[in-house]
Amino acid sequence: MRKKIIAGNWKMNMTFDEGQKLTSEIVNMFKDEAVKDVIAVLNPPFPHIFPVKKLIGDTPGIALGAQNCSAMESGAFTGEVSAKILASFGVQYVILGHSERREYFKEDNELLALKVKQALAHGLTPIFCCGESLEIRMAGTHESNVKFQLTESLFDLSPEDMAKVVIAYEPIWAIGTGKTATADQAQEMHAALRRHIASKFGKELANNTSILYGGSANPGNAKELFSKEDVDGGLIGGASLKSRDFIDITKSF
Ligand code: 13P
Predict the structure, then answer these.
(1) Residue ranges covered by each domain of the chain
(2) What is the pLDDT of residue 23?
(3) Confidence of residue 176 (pLDDT cuts 50, 70, 90)
(4) How far apart are CA 73 and CA 156, in angstroms?
(5) Pocket test for ligand 1, best of 6, 170, 225, 241 (most atoms within 8 A of CB)
(6) What is 5-250's CATH number?
(7) Using 50, 70 and 90 to split pLDDT, how confident is the model at 224?
(8) What's the CA angle centered on 90, arms 85 and 91, to 5 degrees?
(9) Nearest atom, ligand 1, residue 11 CA
(10) DSSP string, 101-133
């Protein structure tokens, strides 16, 4: 059975105090409202990692993630943070290949393949992002474009490693724009990605891979998105910065 996951991507938001308040609220609501059968992953900016970890403690169902990791193992790479360091601080997940990293920091499929390997080598679960631009969607080549991102960055993995990867489909035109993909558009792409994974790694592995949707997901549209067969949760930006909204999304299955 594949896992249901709601991952909050805080992006470059939240001061120390704001992050502490948000995390405490999320942890308390998650416990008080007995949220079940879903993993909530908080992905704050790096400096929050340790203090957020302390607030999460051993709360069942809440996990800690980072937003990036280095493609390198260790050494003289000023400003970088390795998967090994993250793992040593109790990080369990890492978002890789987000379209903002691809666009603003020029991360390509080859570099992302190295990052995925680093993450897996140190026991982190990659949340591997893929997604097409509006231009590509208009041209009608979105499916092949997104499949190619998976092929290039993930298809060299062993089946054992691939089985640990979580996929997030985030159409770029839906990120931070308030314009969500329809539930049918999400389902269509998720099913195509699952078939693509099955073509390389077999049906069973594909059926056990969690595929999350991201892009203007909120408490108002989450239920419909998650009602689709191949949508196993969400990667949430803006709405993950509000405890009430984030918790409501975790309860939308
Ligand atoms: P929004 O939910 O703000 O559109 O962001 C989505 C996203 O990029 C999550 O990684």
Answers:
(1) 5-250
(2) 98
(3) confident
(4) 19
(5) 170
(6) 3.20.20.70
(7) very high
(8) 75
(9) 10
(10) HHHHS---HHHHHHHHHHHHHTT-EEEEEE---
Mean pLDDT of the chain, nearest integer? 97
Beta-carbon count within 10 A of 119 CB? 31
Q: How far is the CA of 215 from the centre of ligand 1 (A)?
A: 5
Question: Ligand 1 centroid to 172 CA: how many Å?
Answer: 9
Give the Å distances, CA to CA, from 207 to 181, 199, 224. Answer: 22, 12, 21
Residues having CB closer than 6 A to ligand 1 are 9, 98, 170, 175-176, 214-217, 235-239
Length of the chain: 253
- pTM exceeding 0.90: yes
